[in-house]
């Protein structure tokens, strides 16, 4: 449990100071995104929509990060984007993902040093499922290398670890 109070015979209950919950919560608040990020699902902008729909569900991901020819982030495709294009009746087996993706600079990103609480607040405030974790590529103007993915699932897992330690 949380071990916030202790009891002694003929003395009673007394406060131990910080409880385990507070200690665990403060440990999470000091974590950077690079400590908890996962591997992203990546695609190239000329990949076909049909192939990405299959990959998205096989890998159980909420989004796919799209890279350009220099392997830098140029777009993002979510489940909603893919649903919209298929509902429209397009021939998704011959439609490149570049036609339906959200393009840079309209994508929120975070850097690997970002603290977990800040990244989680970005997810909640912007009502999005994940954020690409990026690093600016040396010698390029605004080109971003994708390092990982920070998602609501990561936040939920951290919450479970804090509240239900084994």
Please tell me about this protein's structure.
InterPro entries: CBS_dom, CBS_dom_sf, CBS_domain-containing. Residues 36-92, 101-166 form the CBS domain. Keywords: CBS domain, Repeat. It is a single chain. With 166 residues, this protein is an alpha/beta fold. The chain has six helices and nine strands. The chain has helices spanning 20-29, 33-36, 49-58, 79-87, 116-126, 152-163; strands at residues 5-8, 12-15, 42-44, 63-67, 73-78, 102-103, 110-111, 130-136, 144-151. The protein has a four-stranded mixed beta sheet. Strands 7-8-9 form a three-stranded mixed beta sheet. Strand 7 (110-111), helix 5 (116-126) and strand 8 (130-136) form a beta-alpha-beta unit. It starts with a strand and ends with a helix. 23% of the residues are buried.
Report the span from N to C terminus: 10 Å
- The whole-number mean of residue pLDDT values reads 86
Strand content: 15-25%
Sheet with the most strands, sense and barrel status? 4 strands, mixed
Task: Explain the layout of strands and helices.
Elements: E1 5-8, E2 12-15, H1 20-29, H2 33-36, E3 42-44, H3 49-58, E4 63-67, E5 73-78, H4 79-87, E6 102-103, E7 110-111, H5 116-126, E8 130-136, E9 144-151, H6 152-163
Parallel strand pairs: 3-4, 7-8
Antiparallel strand pairs: 1-2, 4-5, 5-6, 8-9
Pfam families: CBS (PF00571)
Keywords: CBS domain, Repeat
Protein name: CBS domain protein
Summarize the structure.
This protein is α/β, with parallel strands linked by helices. The chain contains six helices and nine strands.
């Amino acid at each position: 449990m949380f071990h916030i109070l202790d009891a002694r015979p003929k003395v009673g209950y007394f406060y131990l100071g910080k409880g385990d919950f507070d200690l665990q919560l403060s440990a999470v608040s000091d974590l950077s995104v690079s400590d908890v990020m996962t591997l992203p699902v990546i695609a190239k902008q000329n990949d076909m929509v049909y192939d990405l729909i299959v990959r998205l569900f096989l890998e159980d991901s909420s989004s796919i990060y799209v890279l350009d020819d220099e392997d830098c982030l140029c777009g993002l495709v979510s489940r909603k984007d893919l649903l919209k294009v298929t509902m429209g009746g397009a021939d998704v087996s011959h439609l490149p993902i570049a036609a339906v993706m959200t393009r840079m600079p309209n994508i929120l990103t975070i850097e690997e040093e970002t603290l977990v609480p800040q990244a989680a607040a970005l997810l909640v405030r912007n009502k999005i499922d994940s954020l690409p974790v990026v690093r600016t590529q040396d010698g390029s103007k605004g080109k971003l290398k994708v390092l990982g993915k920070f998602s609501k699932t990561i936040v939920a897992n951290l919450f479970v670890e804090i509240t239900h330690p084994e």
